[in-house]
Amino acid sequence: MLRIAVPNKGSLSEPAAAMLHEAGYRQRKDRRELVLIDADNQVEFFYLRPRDIAVYVGSGRLDIGITGRDLLLDSGAHAEEIMRLGFAASTLRYATRPGSVTGVGGFGGLTVATSFAGIVTKHLADHGVDAAVVHLDGAVETAIQLGVAEVIADVVETGTTLRNAGLEIIGEPILESEAVVIRRPGDSAQEAKVRQFLRRLQGVLVARRYVMMDYDIRSELVDKAVALTPGLESPTVSSLHDKGWVAVRSMVPVQDAQRIMDELYDLGARAILTTGIHAARL
Ligand SMILES: Nc1ncnc2c1ncn2[C@@H]1O[C@H](COP(=O)(O)OP(=O)(O)OP(=O)(O)O)[C@@H](O)[C@H]1O
Ligand SMILES: O=P(O)(O)OC[C@H]1O[C@H](OP(=O)(O)OP(=O)(O)O)[C@H](O)[C@@H]1O
Ligand SMILES: [Mg+2]
């Protein structure tokens, strides 16, 4: 049985469960369920606090886990990132009241409030800045208003929360984060099952990013058409009953599909169809 840690709340929880479901795994129906066994796939899911996941995986009690890169690094746990999942993308950034300080270099003697004390303490030390770090659990923006800190370091996605709190971002991002799959370095237990799990998630990413495109094109134009739809490796070109035409099938990125269809049409392609991909193994 492969033992997998899954976030039980917060920004990671729903997209992680959705991705696992799309990859063909059973997921809990009730948010109070703490453990779920998917016997068909020989997998056991443990629904844990996102911050704790790296600790469980790092201790070797669980084989792999889904968490945020920022949470992994902040935990200091003995675990490493083995796959990027794309969701819960955010940056960790410093912010303060406009006009107070302009960069990390000016933080000396100030207090920085954050939920990521591990990362921030290291970042300040790396920049040779002697600032105090106060650890808060969340709603860090309020720390400045209440006089607990002059600077905060917090997760930023759209920046709306900071703007609403009247704060402004300073300096470069401390870290770029997203959801990742983590594992203990050098752990080779359950290797085949881990590889299979990763292939399934990779299949979901491919199915979300690409569509299948089919079209007919005159034989003499096929090279030009294929240049527009090169596929991941090589497109399939099949003969048609009408000898002057061929049928082409190729994967194209979903965000480019409409533009490519327009360009193929202008080139002379007809019967251009795109269909969704439900699952993939490349
Ligand atoms: N607004 C957001 N947009 C994208 N990612 C986010 C956002 N807020 C948090 N994250 C990311 O989600 C992961 C989980 O963070 P956390 O557990 O704090 O979740 P949360 O959504 O803030 O939940 P809560 O604060 O209610 O516990 C982290 O990797 C963090 O970078
Ligand atoms: O840049 P934005 O799009 O505004 O998103 C970033 C905000 O989202 C998260 O807050 P959350 O709602 O999870 O509250 P928290 O501060 O209690 O974690 C994060 O901590 C930021 O405050
Ligand atoms: Mg939060």
TrEMBL record:
UniProt EC number: 2.4.2.17
Major place of residence: cytoplasm
UniProt cofactor(s): Mg(2+)
Every Histidine biosynthesis HisG C-terminal domain range: 207-278
Broad class of enzyme this protein falls into: transferase
Keywords noted in UniProt: Amino-acid biosynthesis, ATP-binding, Cytoplasm, Glycosyltransferase, Histidine biosynthesis, Magnesium, Metal-binding, Nucleotide-binding, Transferase
Residue ranges occupied by any ATP phosphoribosyltransferase catalytic domain in the UniProt entry: 49-203
Keyword Ligase: no
Catalysed reactions, as listed in the record: 1-(5-phospho-beta-D-ribosyl)-ATP + diphosphate = 5-phospho-alpha-D-ribose 1-diphosphate + ATP
GO biological process: L-histidine biosynthetic process
Pathway in which this enzyme or protein is active: Amino-acid biosynthesis; L-histidine biosynthesis; L-histidine from 5-phospho-alpha-D-ribose 1-diphosphate: step 1/9
InterPro entries reported in the protein's UniProt record: ATP-PRT_HisG_long, ATP_PRibTrfase_cat, ATP_PRibTrfase_CS, ATP_PRibTrfase_HisG, HisG_C, N-reg_PII-like_a/b, N-reg_PII/ATP_PRibTrfase_C
PANTHER family assigned to the protein according to its UniProt record, in alphabetical order: ATP PHOSPHORIBOSYLTRANSFERASE, ATP PHOSPHORIBOSYLTRANSFERASE ATP-PRTASE
The protein, known as: ATP phosphoribosyltransferase
